[in-house]
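Q: Joint fold for the lines below.
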Amino acid sequence: MSLVSENIPGLSPLEKLRSLNITPTVALSFLVIAIVIAWSLAPQLFSGHSPVNGVPADKLSAPSLEHWFGTDHLGRDLYTRVVYGAASSVSSALVAVVIGVVIGGLIGLLSGFFGGWVDVVFARFVDVLLAIPKFLLAVIVVTALGFETINAAIATGISTIAFFARVARSEVIKTRRATFVEASFLLGGSRGFILLRHVLPNASRSMLPLAVLQFGESILVIAGLAFLGYGDPPPSSDWGLLISIGKDYLKWPWLVYAPALVTIVTVLSVNRISRWLRKSH
Amino acid sequence: MITRLSALSFSRRTLLLAASIAVSGALFTSTVVPLPVQAADGSREGGEITFLIDSLGDTWIPNNSAISSFQGHIWGHVADKLIYVDADGKVSPWIAEKWEQNDTATEFTLHLKSGVTFSDGEPLDAKAVVANLNIWYAGRKNEGINPIGLFPKTYDRAEAIDASTVKVFFKKPTLGFIPTLGYHGSILISPKTIAQPANVQADLGKTSGSGPYVVESWKEGDHVTLVKRKDYNWGPAAVGQTGPAHLDSITYKIVSEPSLRVASVQSGQADVAYNASPQELKSLKEEGFTVATPRYLGFVNGWAVNTKLPPYDDVKVRQALQAGINRQEIIDTVYTPDWKLATSFIQSNVPGATDHSDLLAYNPEKAEKLLDEAGWVKGADGIRVKDGKPLELALHSNPYLATSKSVDELIAQQLGKIGWKVTIRAYDVVTFGEKVKFGGPAIPAYEVTRSFIDAGTVASILTNANNGENWFALDERDTTLNALRDKIAGAGTVEERKPLLDNLQKYVLDQGYFIPRTQIVQRIYVQSPNLKGEVYNGVAYASYYTAYLAK
Amino acid sequence: MSNAYLTYAGKRLGQAVIVILLAYIFTFVVVSILPGDPITSVLRNPQNGFSEQEIAEIIAAQGLDQPVLVQLWHSLSAFLTGDLGMSMRSNRPVATLIAEVLSSTLILASSGLAVALFLAFTVAYGTQVVPKKYGQGLLRAFPSLFLSTPNFVIGLFLIHLFGFQLRLFRVIEPDGFWATFFAAITIGIPFSAQIAEVLIANLDHEAEQDYAAVARSRGIAPRRLFATHLLKPAALPVVTVIALTVGELLGNSLITETVFGRTGIGSLVQRSVSTQDLPVLQAIVSLGAVIFVLVNLIADLLYPLLDPRVKIVVGRKRRHAAADDAALGLEAGAKP
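A: Joint structure:
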């Protein structure tokens, strides 16, 4: 990772693409993520069934051409439930990451940039958050907020603030000490200018892969909270919730393993992309 | 109350109720109770069983935990009651051999069995019973020991006349006193334990009852192991056994996942799984496991409608709700044929319950017609609208019933077809208790799961008289209902009360005040085939006092 | 090492105490926001049939209607004298409750850690020894797969395969050897991924160094190279990863204990959360903070001893920079 404030100029789009070094697995990962995003934006394009209303007489039927993932205890098509659940799973993970990155990033940015007592106060706060096991923190916060997926997302986000604050702070300190920033200071650049023009872009560049990675982890943490019963009430169909409902019907294993597989493949793809981002930037 | 025995105890208001009649009545009329024939070689004796349960509740302070759906299982084996109430609501003697009451039902005299002792050696005598009655009524609130909620608030005092006679005084007529003694809250605990402070009472290992089992070991959140008390000799005659239990020990072990509980019994790792998922019952039966779905005496599972909250202040909307639910589909989809259709708002096994199936028939056309008449017009999206407002129903799934969410989801589909917009909210137990109340401002329908022993108390729970719970938020508005309530409270005999109760049920259902879903089975037992002879009481708890392992 | 070291250690200790106290207060504040409390929730059980008025009377009788700040003051001053208070849910001393379950969780966490280390070192070893054409890439994919699988799915899968299909253990005896073993796998797998990622990255980095090239040119076998040259420098940052994640084992025990039906800190948290049992939650959060702080303190104090390149003065910063990367499995070694 090098400290640059601008992209290298003079590359054609094709060359740029080539320089990105996209391997087949990365391409596949992007495809998976594209499908998941499409599911969350327009689920009705991917399934003709209803995610809420089933045919009670068809309950608990095995996977087939008609029902790819089988049907649940109320006769609803599980594939459809997974497709419609994508929006909630994706957006809640996004919320978690945004909370972590924005609040954590801000804390790190300010304490790294200003140092002194700002740094000390934030450092203690971060220490406290860091000292409480993340999942325990998320569970306590979600209990305080109420059992809903969005609250689970907020709780997950809060539990990652400390981490992002740490990373942002160390990046900011690194950047501040870089020659070109020192030079900018000497040339009379204002603090705000330097913060926005040099420190922020550099810090955010190194935080992007981490944010992507955290996105994947957030999906898992929120699913874990849903598994313990801290998710949305029915008939919503977040993936974690589907697994959690499925575990009550272990005689019909697809109810657990189909949503679990979708979750794993999605998170795997996200992680692959994160790794690729880290290497190619 | 339809049995001969209780007819005697409640209607004639005579001074005498002979235990002999009661015992013989219980013995000859009971067909559900297996009468274990003692095998000569004692092959029924011995054995250990493991009972897998979702949870073992919170505190073990007897007063605070006796009504817990989970801890009640342990108390049922560790402690005895004064009265036995069987699955049909029939009252029979237990520790109280016989009892008498005065004409106004304000004074009761209990005659106790002699020779009964608690496991700490204390005698279960009149003094011990007085100590129990007092703490049931008052608790020790400043210490965190609660009163027993359903114990009659009209209690005045109790006196030990001699070692085996207790006289109990009430401020007002209290016909329900005797059946209450058979309720799961009314467990007899050693006076030594009762005298202990709350934090000692919270240690189950230090609590002594007079039951057929004693606590051998326990660990919070993990298990309770009970062992047989060899000198036990005062079981309820109604279960056909009074001597010591057959099984040497019973271990109640927490396994929180229902599917794991069932799978453990299936693979022979445990003997009983509590609260299995109804979906699994059919195949379990086919595999030869014993499946028991006893119903408790109480209300059916259903909604108490908040008549203050529009649009449910409109009787037509309530009646549309009543007709718009396909109850058979609930049983077919969420449950199994072991569940019974609701025929009233009280369970059909409650003495005094009458059949009002006609009022509960699924009739979507009628529902749509009623909604049309009430001015709710179907919009383009299929949801009915009136004055720009959609026809909404917010459901709060009852956290005390595992299948509640699934039933809510199914009903949401059914009502969706006739133009209802149903939303489902699911809270944990704490939040539910805090936010969801009868007649609450945002609670159009409160999902009821509630047991009771005597149908006579129902009417006053529904209204707000005498600390009633005002289930339908009617206050004093419905004079018909209030008149029925007063007549039921004043009824002198069961015969007199019966037609009144019938009227009450018909009226409440017809007005759409109470919307039944199904008869409730709150306790489901899956049992290995070689465990036999257990008995279910009036609150649907399984007692393994009479049970044995077939060899 | 004497004076500077002692000052440094003292300062770290002071910070540790402050962090623990703040964590205690933090929990109090968060849980105090909650509506309701365990007492009322027990009273509101519909089977009880208490009226609102009766509930209010009982609450007042126990002094639970005091202002929040007064309650905080009482509990904090008790905490400072080592009194963890009484559980509101079970009416038993919090210290007893925790003592009853602590050993089970410690066994789970330590065996989970052992499983994680074993898996991580095995996979990392494989990446250095297995040639590219024989599936090295597959081995490298393992950490990512481990990191992407919800551990409750792993747990459910293991229980079904080994508990019910192969009958290796009885689900109702979760403290038995095999049950503990599979629970340890469940909790250990995500951690093995984190450790393995750091380890592999560092091994790759070390393998590119001149000394490794020289060794290879002399014809040293990959196995010997791994054992004699690469392992030690690459394994050092693992200490940091463990220090940072060992507290997470406590948090993650929630899911694993729930799935396997173990009685431990995790299941105690779940019961306490569902009944909002504040004293227990505060005690457990403080315990988590104590463990975290202690382990990091030990790691901090050990690090200068293990790695002679690190001096005490810069020790903390250097380690934490590495830690930030390490915690998420960044290729720390590859960074400038």
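Q: Anything notable?
A: The radius of gyration of chain A is 22 Å. The domain at 25-41+72-280 of chain A is CATH 1.10.3720.10 (MetI-like fold).
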